[in-house]
Predict the 3D structure of the following.
Amino acid sequence: MAITRIMAEHRAEVILGTLSFLSLVSLLSGTSATFIQRGLTRVVSISSYPFLAARTSLEEGVGYTFDFVGRYDDLREEAEENKLLRSRLQTILAREEELAAENRRLRDVLDFARAEARLTQTPVRIIENLRGMLTIDRGRIHGIEARMAVITEQGVVGIVTEVHDITASVATLHHRDCRIAAMVHRNRIRAYDGVVKANGTDYNYICSMDFIDMKNDVRPGDIVVTSPESDFPAGLPVGTVSVVHETAGALWRWAEIEPAVDPYVLDEAMVVTRYVPESTFLAGGVHRDTYREATSLAPTMPDERPIQERLAP
Amino acid sequence: MLRNIAWVVVVVCAALVQTTWPDFLKIQGVTPELVLMLVVYFAIAAGEERAMFTGALGGIYQDVASKAALGHNILCLVIVGYAVGRISTRLVTDHPAVKAGLVLLAGVAQGVLHTLIDYVQYPDTPVITTIVSVVVPAAFYTAVITPFVFVALDWVFGERKLPQGSVT
């Protein structure tokens, strides 16, 4: 009882003595390899982990914030440089895509020129495109003449209407000045005037074949090609019949033709400077005498002027 | 009970912060003794028993984390805790400067004890140099930040004095 009472009265000193004794024993005996040390190490390691993780996160956050603030000018310059490089890269990519597309088009043109051995073609570039009238980069000095046919591998583009020294104008099927003798490929039916022409405005993408006899069989979906009477080699696609209009009691029908070539997306085309009649070509013996200039064999177009204008002095 | 849990959490956190964040706390190579500050705080607020247990708990973490022989920091902190606890019963003021001075003295005493134990274990330890270049600056640094830490501890444990006696 006396010892208990003394310990209770001097509890602080007892605790001090006990802790000091244990510490000294530990220090003197070297408990670094004992199970006590290993257990404590494990407890400390487990409890330290969140602090170490928090420390790492804090260091990274502080470092990021410091870099963001301290290197703001560098980052801004880098961003500007990236923006410049990005715009350059986009330009290069666009140029590359354009070159690839041009390469594909030229390959198609070359294949077409090789396939159409009966035609002598001059490749031209479209340098202007206005209301269905094209300006090409070849003119009189290059051998271009009026009324020459302009085509692509897809079909008829238009006809040369005006020739200058180094340029020429081409009226496409979207322009009123262009009339091309054509026929329905399926049954060789022609209109009364024998032509396909632009209808409506210059912006209208639809052409028309007027004066179709009521008895003639023309259907939507029919392919319309150049006829032998035209300035073009026969059989070149002109367009596709989209709608056939018929009025009760009328003598004629007319058809809307969707052109085979959209001139507004053209970059290159071919001007037919001369061609060999197909029968002669197939028979062999292509002779210079058999060449003929690309002149029209189509009949004279009907005069659509009013009678007052025709008879006016 | 909650107060004791808070006490354990605070002591363990202080020991871990001191052992895992030394670079964060270092100024010119000097690290404050957070555990020592807690020992002094609890010696003043709750008496020498809680101060000794604070030193024991914090010392264990410091010994294990610093790979020192188990008991090195424990012995120093327990002795300092007991001494400060005894001295604090004679304090007649709660002025922060007095507490900071007490922390300064405790820091020097703990550093000297630590260095002497080092010297016993490793006789080639430069005692004087260590005390002058490490112990005294660390004690001063600890004393400087003492008022702020004590304010935070007062906020955690309240203005009331912790119950004297056992930790349970």
